Each structure stands twice: as structure tokens, then as C-alpha cells.
Amino acid sequence: MSEAAPAQDEVQVAPVQSVAPAAAAPRGRGLASLALVLAAAGVGLAGWGAWQVRALHVQSEQQREVLEQTRSQAQTLVQREQSLSARLAQLPTPEQLEERRQLLASVQGDQQRLGQRLDNVLNASRQDWRLAEAEHLLRLASLRLTALQEINSAKALVQAADQILLEQDDPASFAARAELAKSLEALRSLQQPDRTGLFLQLGALREQVAQLNPHVPAFVDNGGVLASLAAEGDGSSWWAQWLERLSHYFRIDFSAAQDIRPVLSGQSLAQVRLALTLALQQAQWGALNGDGAVYQKSLQQAQGVLDEQFNQDNPAVQALRARLGELVTQPVSVGMPDLTAAMAALQAYVQLREAGPAPTEALPDAIVEDPQP
Question: Does 144 fall in a domain?
Fold first, then answer.
């Protein structure tokens, strides 16, 4: 219709164009401009419509994705609901829960009673072990006294045994503790001899023995009678010279107050020193083992060797002789008290406890007891 209208106008206006050609030209340009504007508006409207359609498509895709996620979450929730329902179906009923609670309370009560009985059994067993330990300590103390004569260690062992009886807190242990107190006071009244000190002192004296040397006697008159006979001659004869030389080796004294012993040297001196050293070693053994008889006899033998084989005028011999006289009076053993009465009293107390009612008799009853409230 738009094309037919201009053709009709052209037929109708054709006779007039020749009359007014200037007025028809502006009208055609205005229609063309209007057509261009309408065309541009149509193009813009079409583009806007296409953009809206694309936006709607994108939005629909997003909504579809959201819908898919919602469906998957709904399925997950459904599965969880089914799992919870299955677990709830497996749970016991309130009546079953109450029954189980009562059963648990009964089991806990039985367990508590069993624990108390087990503590009593263990406590009794621990006390028995402690009493056995006290008896062992008392045996060790007796062995220390009889074999080694160790007063201090035996005193500590008896005190430990008495402490164990004190921890028992049992009036029946009075008799055993009384005997232990008597033995302990007897040990406290004794003094421990210093056997180690005596051993070391005798060792120091053995070192001095190796340094002993014989004392060579000196003659004041230088020859005595032989020297007087030599002095009577004129001094020029060979007889006078021989007598003068001989007077330095022989002495004739008719008024001598003491015996003159031969001078020790060489092998004889070594044998005498060895005998003296052996006597001191034997005295050391007696000191360590608390054997007073061996100790004193060995020191007396050492004194006899000094008196018989060495000159008493030697200062070293005099000092060693005086030191041996001091050591021979030192005690190496003392009378040890007898722990037999204390041991018998302790054993009687242990037997008295063992004869009492055993706390373990109630344990089998607890095992077969019915765990009902």
C-alpha cells in the first residue's frame, strides 16, 4: 500500500508539477527523514528485543542450574532423613532404656564392692610382704653380727624391721617390738671397733719394717785387754802391730752387763724382715675378721722378733716396739648380742596373723554374685 499510494499521487499530481515544482521537493525529503527515523527506531527496538531475549535466556539457564542444585540438595536431605529414620528405628524404646539403666547401676554397684574387696585383699597381701621383709632384715642383722661383727649396719637393719612393725599398727605386734627394742638397746650400748683403721696402721708399720737396719755396736775402749797388751810393747815389733789391728775386731770384757748379739746382714736380715712382715700381715687379717686371738698373738710374735733379732738401742726399733705395744691393746672384737629371741617373737607374730581369718574367702562369692539391683 505504501508503494501504491505514491504512484496514485504521482498520477494525480502530474498535471500540477509543471505548475509548482518547488513545493513538492520539501515534502518528499520530510517523508524520507521520517522513514529513516522510523527505520532506526525499528532497528533499535529490534536490538533491544534481541537483548531482552538473550537476557531472558541467560536468566533461564541460571534458574535451571539453581533448580538442579535445589533438587540435589532435596535428594540429599531425603537420604539423610531416611538414614536418621533408620537409626531412630534401631534405637531402643524408653522401656528398654530404663531397663538397661537399672542393669548398669547394678553392675556399677557390684564393681564397686569387688573393688573394695580387692583392695582389702591387696592390702593384706602387702602387709604380709612387709612382715616377710622385716623377718629378712632381722636375719641379715643376725648374719652381720655373727659373721662380720658389723654393729652399725646391724643396728640399722633392726631399726628398719621395727619401723615395719610400727607401720602395721597392730596391738598384737607388742611382744615382737619389745624384743626388737631390747636388741636395739643392746646394740646401741656397744662401740664399733675401728678394724679398718687398725688394718691401715699395721700396713704403715709393714713399710717401716723394710727400712729397719741393725745397729752396729761401738766399743768405747777400742780393744780392751788386747789394746793394753799392745800398749806395753815398744810399738816397733810386728807383734805389737798385730795386736793393735786385732783389737778392732775382738773385744774381751770380763765385766759385761748384757749379751752382745751378732750383727744381721744379707740373707739373715731379709729372713728376719720377712718373718716380721708376715706377723704384721697375720695381725691385719685378725683385725679385719674381728679375731682378737689371732690379732694379739700376731702382734706378740712381731714384738718377739724385734726383741730377739734387733738391737734395742736402735731408735727405730724402739719406736716400732712401742707402737706395737699400743696396738696390741686395741679391741678388734666385742661381744655381740643374740637376736634369737627377737627373731622368735617376730615369727610368732607372723604365724598369728596367718592363722587369722583370710580376707580372700569372700572373693569367690563376689564373682558368682547375681548382678541384680
Answer: yes
Q: Is 186 within 8 Å of 158 (Cβ atoms)? A: no
pLDDT at 111: 78
How far CA 158 is from CA of 134, 138, 140, 191, 346, in Å, comes to 8, 6, 9, 16, 12
pLDDT digits (tens, 9 = 90+) for 311-320: 777 888 888 8
Cell numbers for 236, please give them. 816397733
- Claim to verify: residue 339 and residue 268 sit in the same structural domain: no
Q: Is residue 7 part of a domain?
A: no
Please count the structural domains in the chain.
Answer: 3
> What pLDDT, on a 0 to 100 scale, did the predictor assign at position 219?
45
Q: In this structure, are 233 and 346 located in the same domain?
A: no
Q: Per residue in 6-28, pLDDT tens?
A: 444 443 444 444 444 444 556 66
**What is each CA distance from 290 to 48, 282, 295, 299, in whole angstroms?**
128, 12, 8, 14
pLDDT for res 256:
52
Range of the domain at 176: 102-191+335-367
pLDDT of residue 292: 84
Residues 186 and 197 in one domain: no
Terminal-residue alpha carbon distance, the chain: 109
On whether both 268 and 295 belong to a single domain, the answer is yes
